[in-house]
Structures are given as C-alpha cells and as structure tokens.
Amino acid sequence: MHSSLWRTLYGQKAKKGQQAEAFAVKYLQSHGLELISQNFSCKCGEIDIIMHDAEFLVFIEVRYRKQIQYGHPLETIDYRKQQKIINTVQYYLLKYPDLGHYPCRIDAIAIYADNKVNSSGNQIEWIKDAIQLMLTFVTCGSSCFLYLRLNNL
Predict the structure, then answer these.
(1) Dist. CA 131–CA 150, nearest whole Å
(2) Is 4 helix (H, G, I), strand (E, B) or coil?
(3) Lesser CB count within 10 Å: N end or C end of the chain?
(4) 60-108, pLDDT tens digit by residue?
(5) Cα atoms in the 13 Å half-sphere on the side-chain side of 146
(6) Which residues, in sequence order, are bridge partners of residue 127?
(7) What is the mean pLDDT of the chain?
(8) Coil, strand or helix at 55
(9) Which strand (E) or helix (H) includes residue 146?
(10) Which pTM value belongs to this model?
(11) What per-residue string of b and e applies to 57-82 under the rule 16 or more CB within 10 Å gives b?
C-alpha cells in the first residue's frame, strides 16, 4: 500500500478512535466518574481511559464499530487483548504505587452507530468488570506480587 494512502487511512481510524474515547469520557463523567488519565501507554500496551469511580480505580477499554452487522465491538477484546490490558494495568500500578490502595476494576465501553438511539447516532454500552482483576498486594521486602483472576468477556 502506498505510504500516503496508509497514513490517510490510519489517520481517519485514529481520529474515529479519539472521537469514541471523548464520547466515552463525557458519558462516564455524566455518571459520576472522574477522569485521571487518557491514553496511558507503555511497552506492555495502552489503557484508553483511567477514571475514579467512588472507591474504585477504573481502567477502561473503548471499542468503536461503525456497524455491528459484522460483530459487536466488545467481541474484539479477545484473550490476547485482555492479557495486554492486564499487563498494562500492572505496570501502571507499579509506576504509581500511591494509587495501589484503591480496588481496581477494568470496564469496557462499546460504541456503535445506531441512529434510532440518539441524535449523535451512537449507541453506548458500559460493561463494568468486563475483565475481573483481583489484585492482592503482598509486600515481601521490595517485591510486590499481583495475583490475578481473569474472566473472559
């Protein structure tokens, strides 16, 4: 593929992703969550949105599909993607240990076009605990161990 065409197509996809994430942030803020960070990335992966919800530190994966006739947006969060999210959450908690006292939750937001739902034409679904992450911190000298339990979507 010609590089300028690839950049154009990738740029359009990235713009749609940014718009979907902005829509998700507004939606979640309207439900009382407070924004901490967006697009946290490391070599393990990326977390789209990090928010505070009452006593929880919430890591949110946002998925957008223009149409769902070929599959729901949440179907794209396969086992491999779940592992990348968990690894990135672990890294984030090790990088910011002052946030380690909050219980953690990994949610998913699905956004897809549906002109019947609202004027923006977007349907949004918020799945709390989409990936269940049970974090137990055991301090042994300078080591911190994370015990995980993963439930598939």
Answers:
(1) 6
(2) helix
(3) N
(4) 999 988 777 777 887 878 888 888 999 999 999 999 989 888 899 999 9
(5) 20
(6) 108
(7) 78
(8) coil
(9) strand 143-146
(10) 0.76
(11) bbbbbbbbbeeeeeeebbeebeeeeb
Phi, psi of 106 (to 5 degrees): -115, 115
Q: How far apart are CA 15 and CA 13, in angstroms?
A: 5
| Residues in contact with 64: Cβ distance below 8 Å, sequence separation at least 6, in sequence order | 16, 17, 19, 20, 73, 110, 111, 112
Would you say how long the chain is, in residues? 153
What is the C-alpha to C-alpha distance for residues 62 and 26, in angstroms, rounded to an integer?
13
Q: If we measure between CA atoms, which residue out of 46, 32, 28, 17 comes closest to residue 126?
A: 28
- Contact assessment for residue 127 and residue 108, using Cβ atoms and an 8 Å cutoff: yes
Q: Compute and round to an integer the Cα radius of gyration of the chain.
A: 17
**Tokens read off for 56:** 């929880």
